[in-house]
Each structure stands twice: as C-alpha cells, then as structure tokens.
Amino acid sequence: MRVLFVTLAASPHFHVQVPLAWALRTAGHEVRVASQPDLMDTINAAGLPATPVGPRLAQDESVEELRRRQEKAAERLAEPPDAQELMRMAEDRPELLTPDFLDGLFTVMTSAIFQNFSAEETVDDLVGLARRWRPDLVVWDTLMMGGAIAARASGAAHARLLYGLDLVGTMRERHLASLAGRAPELREDPLAEWLGWTAARYGGGFTEDLVTGQWTLDPAPASLRPPTALPWVPVRHVPYNGRSVVPEWLREAPSRRRVCLTLGLSFREVMGGDQASIPDLLTALGELDAEVVATLDAGQLAEVGQVPENVRVVDFVPLDALLPSCSAIVHQGGFGTVQNALAHGVPQVVVPNDLWDIYPRAELIERSGAGVRLSGTGPLRPAELRELVARVLDDPSYARNAARLRDEMRAAPSPAELVPRLQELTELHRSRD
C-alpha cells in the first residue's frame, strides 16, 4: 500500500514519525513525507522521499505571527482575557472548564494554531498530492489537520500520530459535551466551522475524524496517557534523533555518575527560545558530584560566563547514544526528550513551564516515581534544582521506577510489529476500491 506521512515542519515532530515510516518501507510499502518546505533537508537526511506543501513555516516569524493571531482571536470574545490564557489546552481544573473558557480556547486555538499550520495553500497542496499519488493511508501530525482533509478528498484511511499528550482529543470531548448542553442556536464551534468549510472546498463536509483521526497512534506508555474514549492504537517509541556522529568521548564509560542537561529542539525551533535561565541551570549543576553533559548551542551559551569544571558542553549529541550512560537527565519536559529518557529508563528532573502539555506530563512523571519536577512558577532556584538532582541520583527508587516505565514502553508493539495492524485498519477505513 501507499502511505503518506504529514508532519509539521519541526524536526522533533518528524523524528517521531521516522521509525514507523521506515517500518512500512522495509515491509515493502511505498512511503512519502509531506511538510512545509523548511523541513525538506531533514526528511531527506532520514532517507525518506519528501514533498513540500504550502509556504515556509518560518519559525522565527511564526512565533510573532502566533502572538498576533492570539490577540486577534481573543478580540472576538465578549470579555477577552489575556490571549495566552486561552491557549491552555492542558487546563484540567473543573472550576475553570466553563463553557466560556472552552469556547474561547477553541476560538483562539483554531485561528492561532490549527489554521496557521494547515494554511489554505498548504491544504491545497496536500489535497493535490493525495489525489495524484492516491495513498491508501495518511498518517498525520496532530497539529496538521490538513492531512485528514487530504485523506478524505482522496478516499484514503487516516490516523493521527501523537506528538505529546492528546490534549486536542481530551479538550475536544469536553467542548462537545459543553455544546450538547446548550440550545442549538448557541452551539458555536469554531473548529468544526473552519474544518467544515475547508473540507467543502474539496467536496466534503465536517466529521469528527477530521479533528481526531479515524484512529490514534500513541507512542507514550499507557500509564502516562490521559483517558479518552477515542479509538487508540499503541506503538512502541523507537528513538530517532536525526543524522549524527557519536563523539569519541562517548565511546568510553564515564568515570563517575553522568547527568544530561538538555533544553530540547522544540524550544529552539518552535517555541521561540528557552524558558529557563541557562546560567542558573549551570550554577545548580556545577556543584554536583557528577559529570554533566549539557547540549547547548552558541546562542544559548552567549549569556553564560564561566562554565563549571564538571560540565561538558556540546552543541548536539544524539540522546539515544548519550542516555544509556546517564544516571539522570534534567530537561524542560518536551515530548521527544521525555520519550528518549523513558526508552532508556533514565530518571528525570523536569524544569517545567506552561507551554502546551509540559505541566501535566511533568506531573505524570513525578506521580510515576520515575522523576521529579520543580515546584511552582517564577525564576528557577538553583538550590532547589541541585537538591532534586541529588535526590534522584541517590535514591534508587527513581531508577527502579524509570526501568518499570521502560519495560512498559517496550511491551507495546514495535513499528515493524504494527504494520499488519495498519494494513487491516486501512482496509477497513479507506473509502475507495
């Protein structure tokens, strides 16, 4: 069969798709990857055929565009709060999940995020590609709903491959429940409205699978997954960190406990910068009785004075190669970093922020006993971080619980083992002969 992968032009989002794409390809299926032009070199470096769709995403410009869209969308509300408040997809406090909040959330998210990433030109190109190439299955990034529209327009089956917690599915269920309790004339649904008129351009209409897929592929361990009633198919996370060379120093076992410090690629490429103070992070870790490997680029180091003696700074090293030698990892809670740590059973210390799903994921890690997170908000407190890292290093229960989650992850079907199931689901869901 032919399988089209659709990904946001951000390498961490694409990296999650690579092992499954290669599993399908090695099983004899044809695979293509579609994304904005920014990602073509990254896709080619993974050995997969790439097709550009739509305009460049241009992340530096996109962050500013995102802020502008947030503010414009918030203006549509009767009493607009701060626009950033209306992007809290991870909000789970019942007293705040009011109909007004849910309406505002999907008003801002539809305009600022979903429409931005699946722009009209991007969807046109995706539909054109799908109608020409005729994929049997489209696997799409949860933020690229244009992939679902392209599948519908070409008669292909389609599935979401999650990057992070399923906040879209969870919040969508809440919003639908809220809408069902209102009079018909009060059921405004900006996400369904946008997807409906977009699908209508290609002869279709709105159905809920355009939001959440005909089924959802989730590489996270089941114990770290929020509950939803959506059709769900587990797949084992296989780390892929891009093209790299393992450095010589990493070929030898460390002489003492090793701690990885990484702020992840998402914050460099998508989120508009780091959220924690790098000098404070290095100050906290500089007094540890451990070797610290910090993956920081020149821009991140610009604000740093003297690097502590126990810290080795590298611009990039593949986490899949580094983490097996580590006793702990300190990071900001991004999905790719967490998945790499889980895959290798490494205890985690999370320095969280309120972007997307960071807080709830940090809470799940702490609740599992496989790591800890910094408490509260505000500036990072080096003494607190140092104490947490020392605790994770010295208390063997964190390593045991991290190993338990690693084993849970390994129990899920590998991408290769999943291929026959995808063939069955594709045959069941595609709408053409």
TrEMBL record:
<feature type="domain" description="Erythromycin biosynthesis protein CIII-like C-terminal">
    <location>
        <begin position="281"/>
        <end position="425"/>
    </location>
</feature>
<dbReference type="InterPro" id="IPR002213">
    <property type="entry name" value="UDP_glucos_trans"/>
</dbReference>
<dbReference type="Pfam" id="PF21036">
    <property type="entry name" value="EryCIII-like_N"/>
</dbReference>
<dbReference type="InterPro" id="IPR050426">
    <property type="entry name" value="Glycosyltransferase_28"/>
</dbReference>
<dbReference type="InterPro" id="IPR048284">
    <property type="entry name" value="EryCIII-like_N"/>
</dbReference>
<keyword id="KW-0045">Antibiotic biosynthesis</keyword>
<keyword id="KW-0808">Transferase</keyword>
<comment type="similarity">
    <text>Belongs to the glycosyltransferase 28 family.</text>
</comment>
<dbReference type="InterPro" id="IPR030953">
    <property type="entry name" value="Glycosyl_450act"/>
</dbReference>
<protein>
    <submittedName>
        <fullName>Activator-dependent family glycosyltransferase</fullName>
    </submittedName>
</protein>
<dbReference type="InterPro" id="IPR010610">
    <property type="entry name" value="EryCIII-like_C"/>
</dbReference>
<feature type="domain" description="Erythromycin biosynthesis protein CIII-like N-terminal">
    <location>
        <begin position="22"/>
        <end position="264"/>
    </location>
</feature>
<dbReference type="Pfam" id="PF06722">
    <property type="entry name" value="EryCIII-like_C"/>
</dbReference>
<keyword id="KW-0328">Glycosyltransferase</keyword>
